[in-house]
Design goal:
By secondary structure, this protein is an alpha/beta fold. It has one domain: Rossmann fold (3-Layer(aba) Sandwich), CATH 3.40.50.1820. It has 16 helices and 12 strands. The strands form 2 sheets. A 10-stranded mixed beta sheet has the order 1-2-6-3-7-8-9-12-11-10, sandwiched between helices. It has a two-stranded antiparallel ribbon with strand order 4-5. Helix 4 packs across helix 5 and helix 5 runs parallel beside helix 13. The longest helix has 18 residues. The radius of gyration is 22 Å and the shape is globular. The N and C termini lie far apart (68 Å).
């Protein structure tokens, strides 16, 4: 009799809430009850794997941090956050040192709460993509050497389709995508894929509303022009090197530059000295590993590299942390890393420009915001401005300062179809350097309201 009652309860509950008892177990098995070193929290979190390609055995790892119960997560939108590289972890950067609710202490073993976490405004979904990044894996080793933009977008789309089946309560919910750096490719490419596959669908499961990107790789030609100009105008390189970079690099691929460009970039790196290129006025963490990872491709390797990266490498390799995350279930032969040298070093297809995608999605009426931290020399403000200018959009509101607590927090310009916002004093990872201002920016994006003009 007891078994019959249990079966009846399971059938009734799952039919109403999830659709099947199997779906209930899939959903619940991913729940995180408590992470090692975690302070008390008032939100639910889930993590685990979603298979995106059965034949190759590719599975992507995610971490969902819902909004606090007091903020009614069931009525909040869902935001997918992607970091770039290519080859860098959204769990390491986006979640653990930028917009997530739990950040890592300097001991590499305990966590603290982020008062400006974006999960106060939306449910946050962090994805380690492509396979080979972070905890995400493939059973086909050759995959690691053949990833590129197209397969990454397809795998991310497959992840979303399968993830929504596991979490059906998020179906039809307002959905946005955000990211930074090389996610300047990932975000618009995935956005385009969702938009095109939603065409003709009356009530799409992935209820995509728009995207935002920060310090984003957008157009190789414009990025080169704007980056070299930033270096020169900020006194980071000589006049002669500036001219050499213009001659050797402009018009070439930033992911696969010619040898002359590599040589010129090497000279520029020497001239810049021991600074943190991701935040030129911030003291590096010792001899920062950003120089090791940066190589000859200044904006294609990783993200801001203070000591927080060291804490992440320690924390996410702890066996008890991996167990709590339901991670590393296949016992990978390599340690968890913030960025995969293999995936990033062997990147294949990388289109020269994202601007055609911008034009398509702007015409579709999607909400698109672009933001820039103004102390980043990797994908600087000037590079983004050149890319936006190339779209030839009509200006709705001309360049103006926006304020936080009576102080200028940045500048903004509103175009027909796109909003551009700068954040003063922020480096490559805006939410890391200016968490409060980044929170205000995200809130404005969700509300689709212009940045505050008044200094009062």
């Amino acid at each position: 009799m007891a078994n019959s009652l249990f079966f009846l309860f399971c059938f009734t509950f799952s039919l109403v809430v999830l659709g099947s008892c199997g779906s209930l177990s899939d959903h619940e098995k991913d729940k995180i009850f408590k992470l090692p070193g975690q302070p008390p929290v008032d939100f639910n979190q889930y993590s685990g794997y979603v298979t995106v390609n059965q034949e190759s055995g590719r599975a992507l790892f995610y971490w969902l941090t819902e909004s606090p119960a007091s903020r009614h997560p069931e009525s909040r939108p869902l935001l997918l956050w992607l970091n770039g590289g290519p080859g860098c972890s959204s769990v390491a950067y986006g979640a653990a040192e930028e917009i997530g609710p739990l950040h890592i202490n300097s001991d590499g073993k305990t966590l603290y709460t982020n008062p400006y976490s974006w999960n106060k405004l939306a449910n946050l979904l962090f994805l380690e993509s492509p396979a080979g990044v972070g905890y995400s894996y493939t059973n086909t080793t050759s995959d690691l050497y053949t990833f590129g933009d197209a397969r990454t977008a397809e795998d991310s789309y497959a992840f979303l389709v399968n993830w929504f089946e596991r979490f059906p309560q998020y179906k039809y919910r307002d959905f946005y995508i955000a990211g930074e750096s090389y996610a300047g490719h990932y975000v618009p490419q995935l956005s385009q894929l969702i938009y095109e596959r939603n065409k003709g669908v009356k009530n799409p499961v992935i209820n995509f509303k728009g995207f935002m990107v920060g310090n984003a790789v957008t157009d190789d030609y414009k990025d080169y022009v704007g980056t070299f100009e930033y270096w020169w105008t900020h006194g980071l390189i000589s006049d002669s090197t500036y001219k050499s970079l213009q001659k050797a690099c402009e018009g070439s691929s930033s992911e696969h530059p010619p040898i002359e460009c590599i040589s010129a970039l090497s000279i520029a790196e020497i001239e810049q000295g021991r600074i943190d290129p991701y935040s030129i006025y911030t003291k590096p963490c010792g001899i920062t590993s950003s120089f090791k990872r940066r190589g000859h491709y200044p904006w294609m390797r990783g993200a801001y590299d203070p000591c927080t990266e060291n804490y992440a490498n320690q924390y996410f390799n702890l066996p008890e942390v991996q167990e709590a995350f339901h991670a590393n279930i296949t016992k990978l032969s390599y340690p968890w890393k913030t960025c995969s040298d293999i995936v990033g070093g062997y990147w294949t297809d990388s289109p020269l420009s994202m601007l055609p995608i911008y034009k398509e999605l702007i015409a579709a009426g999607l909400r698109i915001w672009v933001f820039s931290g103004d102390t980043d020399s990797v994908v600087p403000l000037t590079a983004t401005r050149y890319s936006i200018d190339a779209l030839n959009l009509t200006t709705i509101a001309n360049w103006y300062p926006w304020y936080d607590n009576g102080k200028v927090a940045g500048w903004s310009q509103i175009y027909n179809g796109l909003t551009f916002v700068t954040v003063t004093g922020a480096g490559h990872e805006v939410p890391l350097h200016r968490p409060r201002q980044a929170f205000i920016l995200f809130r404005s994006f969700l509300e689709n309201k212009a940045m505050e003009r008044s200094s009062m």
